[in-house]
Design brief:
Arc Repressor Mutant, subunit A, 2 domains, DNA-binding, mainly alpha, Tetracycline Repressor, domain 2, homodimer, globular, 10 helices, 222 residues
Chain lengths: 222, 222
DNA sequence: TGTCATTGGAAACAATTGTTTGAATATGCC
DNA sequence: GGCATATTCAAACAATTGTTTCCAATGACA
């Protein structure tokens, strides 16, 4: 019989699933500890508080992600040896990095749900934590995107990147619900890789869309 | 001195703001009633339960929205008199309907935040309620989109519509945070209308993106 | 004016929350 | 073995939650 993982791991494994399913506020420590078969006090003993547990759940995904993503960007920059990295390659690399990390634990869905929650749930401490802890890798990425899309005004690129962030997080974090509808309506089962395949041309087209009409000039300015 | 709106209205006005700011579970009835200056029991008296209050908050936005959106689609169909309505016109109409409704209460932000929460928060009852109560108008809209984009496979259109739903909800519901960043980085203040202007070409380009590569064939199928 | 249904309000309810305590147990090290 | 440290455990804690109860105030209608 396989040995049970230690208490800390059991808590994290259970917590991430419950958090992803129902959100942070809706998941009680008793929920977690009873399902993980550990004592209630174990959470506060090992993590200190519920907040700290939430951050630890994120760290277990984001730490390996940032390491890999940085490494992949290093490779990419080496490959292109100073030349501009095309947008498609950047997006491809990001997608690969996102897909790789949770593959070890077979829980991309959880990963994406957590990202979605980090944005939508109140939990101000979480956004701050993520920004401070993992902001640098995103800064690096957006700078590379800037070089790849020199014709885009800075503000326009900023917004389009966030548009696409919304697309991806929204879709993948609500995947279960959407998959149910899609399966009912079109019969076909949709895998995550399938979805990423469908996302690629959409994201590229969105980033390369023509510029919007200039904002209308105020009346008083003639 | 202007007469205070009645209890029911005060509760709804306060609840929608607090819900939008912090989510449903994180907003207690005491939070709402104290800020609205009504008695705690008033919520259960007038609405029956917290769940019912949440649904009532949504109904106050979605009821007028569906009415207007149906009406706008009626006009549009009349204008085109049986001919196919182009995608741009459909998107334009939808955007206009969304913008019109909360303009009365000057709270598009709240409307969008609520929509975002409806998707991301657990609250299974909410999704079910919205689907049952307001599903028909979306069915009508997607059917018109189908006619406007005959070259798209059904599944592909389904997914792209949800991609764009994600873009819009994610962007507009996280608007405050994003606006802060954008203003800090680019100095310019961004209005909602500005954002809609920027969204238009992106959404159109995304819907018209080339089809993805066909999904790779499984090994055993030669 | 008196009656009755509606609304407002203070208090209490039972349940659940995150956290802490202090003793019991296990573990590692000399 | 024996000590010290680390972990587990049951119990209790104080705070907060949604909901209910019971009574007072209100206002419409006869």
């Amino acid at each position: 019989m396989a040995q049970q993982p230690d208490t800390v791991t059991r808590i994290l494994d259970t917590a991430e699933v419950l958090f992803a399913e129902r959100g942070f506020a809706e998941t009680s420590l008793r929920n977690i500890t009873s399902k993980a078969k550990v004592n209630l006090a174990a959470v506060n003993y090992h993590f200190g508080s519920k907040k700290a547990l939430i951050q630890a759940v994120f760290a277990r995904y984001l730490d390996p992600f940032t390491v890999r993503f940085h490494a992949s960007l290093d490779e990419l920059e080496a490959d292109y040896a100073g030349r501009v990295i095309p947008l498609e390659a950047l997006l491809e690399t990001m997608a690969r990095s996102v897909l790789e990390v949770p593959a070890e634990r077979n829980s991309l869905k959880v990963f994406m749900r957590l990202l979605g929650l980090a944005y939508s749930q109140a939990q101000g401490h979480l956004r701050r934590y993520i920004q401070e802890e993992y902001g640098s890798v995103f800064t690096r990425f957006t700078e590379l995107v800037r070089l790849a899309t020199p014709e885009l005004p800075d503000a326009e690129r900023f917004w389009r990147l966030h548009f696409m962030l919304g697309t991806v997080i929204f879709t993948l974090s609500g995947l279960d619900a959407l998959r149910d509808i899609a399966e009912k309506d079109y019969g076909e089962h949709v895998s995550v890789r399938d979805l990423v395949r469908r996302l690629r041309p959409v994201v590229v087209a969105a980033m390369n869309a023509p510029l919007p009409d200039p904002s209308p000039v105020r009346r008083e300015a003639s």
